[in-house]
Amino acid sequence: MASANLPDLKTLRLLSALETSSAESLATGSWSQLQTLDMCNNSLGATAIAHRAAWPLLQSLNLCGNDLDAEAVRHLVSASCFSLTNLDLSSNKLDAAAVQALASGGLSQLTSLHLSCNNLNAVAIAHLVGGDWSGLQSLHLVATHLGASAIEQLVRGNWASLTFLDLFMNRLDTAALEQLVRNSWLQLRTLNLGCSHVNADGISQLIKHNWALLQSLVLSGNNLDSLALQQLIKGSWPQLQRLDLMYNCISIADFASLGTGNEPLMQSGETCFEPPIHLCGRQWMRLKGVILGHSQS
Question: What is the DSSP letter of 5?
């Protein structure tokens, strides 16, 4: 890529198109108005990131699917990132050292952080919570190999502004969920615990928390059965609007068995409601949809 002078360009997407030499050329261009840069699925590593220019107005940076490690992250945060609010580092080579560099990089203005599909552990999460994420609203930790010890570290963070937490495809057994409820999660609206080995005992821990503002709860693809459903409906869900129970062992009949016979008819797929409704023997003030079906064998 030849050096470019496009001072009015605000959005640039270069997917699966860059090598290190191209990244160097990109960094020498004039992109003074650039706000969104997507360099997903390239082969960028530390050398390429070392040539990163200081784009003063950059708000969103997607580096998903590259070869970024701790050295690359150190180069990334060393450049001026004063306007950056959305950072995607999913599917790279991040480890505890990389997360430590990220947390110490002065990115307190971030509102969205994607670290999914990296090999993170309790040490990495301990480094993560050491950063200033007081303004973070959305945190994505899909398939990062998190278990109880990592969740124990996660809840120690200051997540005062967090509204969206994605823990899909981790190992959230009973011990992990016992840790999860130890943070207040004051602003949380969406919680994704799908495909994470959650069972009835785990649900009994989950309902110990007062999920005062939670609107969407994803529990699809777990080990949930009628006993788990009985535990779930005991919880405090005053603002819950959407409940995803797809790919579990919970059936329409399980819902019916907990009702009084006057509840709305459930169906496979998503059943939509006009709240408030009575379901499973209790009133739901905000519930608009429940997703069922494709039960696991």
Answer: B
